[in-house]
Amino acid sequence: MKKRSKFPIKLIVILIACAALFFLIRLVLPSAEKRAISTVDEFYTYEQKGDFSASWELFHPDMKKKFDKGPYIQDRAHVFLNHFGVNTFSYELGKAEKLENWRMGDGGETFPKVYKVTVTQTYKGKYGNFNLVQDVFAAEMEDGWRILWDYKQK
């Protein structure tokens, strides 16, 4: 007479398959942190190319309230390209830091989760070489990740 094992083989196979599927999904689907960094990178790629219309589209609606599209495009081109005397810039992204209950401005909407990415833009122009360092924030919305800047008066 055969003795039955306490753990059925089918159950073990199913558990191993579920664990493998879980790890495969984690490898294939990017994490929230990676998607946030990717959005910040996309924003500055557009800015670097002078495509300020496309970068403006990545703003969170609260940012779009601060800047109408037309004036934003004109201001960015005028200040960063004309005044600095450059055609483009290079940039580096720091590591993402997850923040909870963050606000864009004093008394503003609270975002339950954002990722802060420090961006260093390097300009080489008629006034010499210099870096502009800014913390940029990415918040997830239904239509994807969106860009925010910090306006708190601290």
Automatic annotation (TrEMBL):
Domain of life: Bacteria
Entry protein name: DUF4019 domain-containing protein
Natural source organism: Bacillus infantis
Higher taxonomy: Bacteria, Bacillati, Bacillota, Bacilli, Bacillales
